[in-house]
Design goal:
Length: 463
Amino acid sequence: MKRGIILIFGFTGNLCKRKLIPALYYLFAEKKLQDMFIVGVAHDQATVESIAAGAQDHVEQRDDELWKLFVSRMAYEQVDVQDEEAMARLAQRITDVEHEYTLSGDRLVYLAVPAYLFCLITKRLKNVGICKKMEQKAEWTHCVVYEKPFGHDRASAHEINACLAQCLDESQIYRIDHYLTKELVSNIALTRFTNCVFEPLWCNRYIDQVHIVLNETIGIEGRGAYYDHYGALRDVVQNHVLQLLALVSMESPEKLTGDYIRHERARILEKIYFVAGLLGQYEGYQNEAGVQTGSRTETFAALIVMIQNHRWAGVPFFLRTGKCMPRNEVAIAIKFKQVDCLLLRNCPVPSDWLTITVSPDARFSLQLNMKKPGTADELVQVAMDFCHSCMFTIRPTQAYELIIQEALMGEQTGAVRSDEIEYAWKCIDQIYASGLPLYTYKKGTAGPEQLASFMYKHGIQER
Ligand code: BG6
């Protein structure tokens, strides 16, 4: 492991407190970050101690001595990124830290800031010499991680991409989507392509419809100002949901890493087209802090999209996400076609379903028809269940740990390439342009009451 600097912008923000600092601590505790020094940057007045105190409650199984050691390898700099001189001072400070701790000069920069700052900060990083553009792919000498959402629509994402390309090589750019590094998500492609029982059936000949669900019981959790500007489509569909779709439907890449897999994901995202949908907003949303009165921002979406290629022609992909839902569920459910009606007494025979649940429990479940014991030919549906967390008891590496680890290794599987991100935005732009109706729904229900007739009309079966 090289001895470098991790420079984090947005260090006083929620993401750092809840996810990034805990992830860095776990890596440190597992001796994967021993020789690193962390420099946090933000606009606010703060100290390393106050920031660490805010983060420590989000670290489970914390060892006090180790935590102290970890915090001693962090510094905080109050910097206004608009001010080029302040950025030049930051560059000098980084060089000083590198000398003091005999570091290698390798720098990982993490931008946990809103997308409108991506271009500005990246230009400044280049101008003051914190990052230089590399000519060809190398290890993480200088790389920059960008939080989601990357832009607001295709045009803004394209503009940011063009700006970044002037300052950095694509191999130095990590547009992250934390879903791509979740344990079961990164397992989807591996399971599909290494089990002969799945791949031959993975097409429109045998699959009737695919459901992708990202439902949360939480609301917008004090993030009104952010959320009201984005909404469910931009917050989770453009990224997490469409990436799940790409992983489950892509062709087999030559290898399951880096550009091999990014290329196949991009080929799917390019071919998605929108068929129908409806949007919802939970009752009471407009009273949340930071939300505009009369806001028409959606907190729920049910969408049907299709993929224009030979494998998937005619198969509806039903995407569904909502805040304030009755239960947490992130899952992909594949409904297989019904078998021909040969055994007349049992017709129609229920479809088989394969459900890949990402959370709350990572599990694979295959629902099949079997004979009901004690009957001659009556059917009963049974599930073959594989529960990941029941079988593997080790603490699963959290998504943000993997993001940092992958960036440190120069591995871009969990990072979204410039073309992928623009194709995904194009799909979201298309959905907004279609002027979908927005209905209200009660908190704790499965969405607007119009959902049932929408599903019925489009032949989408409830699981
Ligand atoms: C984030 C969204 O990207 O993903 C949040 O901004 C959402 O609104 C979250 O709650 C869901 O992620 P996870 O890992 O909790 O399923």
